[in-house]
Design brief:
Length: about 150
């Protein structure tokens, strides 16, 4: 089931854990809704991707960002704050997908205007189910902002 925008979607995955990134990529790769999945492994690379700097000069604008909080170089809170403070980026939905269930992290993420906060389960099957739920909700049910260049 595709929403009325009927376009294949671009996701930016900001994740430093190789095993989590591989699992998320494998789960989403089977999707009929995801056209492009881009992976960056730290907060600096994430902002370079979004602002099309350096090696990311030709990067597409993502339709959805999956953001880990605990990142090297620049943490996910800083990346989230930058995205939501930028008029050109603030409409991109950001799903915080992290190991932290700390109430302060949850509260701070929503104060920074995260669109969703999900804790990564330790159990492999539950982790796959979380990724599938993100896919189903954000890519099949929700109307995302119109494509921009």
């Amino acid at each position: 089931m595709m929403t009325s925008h009927a376009r294949l979607l671009k996701i930016l995955l900001v994740e430093d854990s190789r095993s989590d990134a591989v699992l998320i990529q494998r789960t989403l790769r089977g999707s009929k809704l995801v056209n492009e999945l881009h992976l960056v492994r730290d907060g600096v690379a994430a902002t370079d991707f979004l602002y099309r700097r350096g090696e990311y000069v030709d990067a597409p604008r993502p339709d959805l960002i999956l953001l880990d909080l605990n990142l090297p170089k620049k943490n996910g809170r800083e990346v989230l704050a930058e995205i939501k403070a930028d008029e050109d980026l603030m409409t991109i939905p950001v799903v915080v997908l992290t190991t932290s269930s700390d109430e302060a992290d949850i509260l701070r993420s929503y104060q920074l205007h995260a669109n969703c906060y999900m804790v990564k389960p330790v159990d492999l099957e539950q982790f796959v189910e979380v990724v599938k739920s993100i896919e189903h909700f954000w890519l099949a049910l929700v109307e995302l902002p119109p494509e921009q260049s």
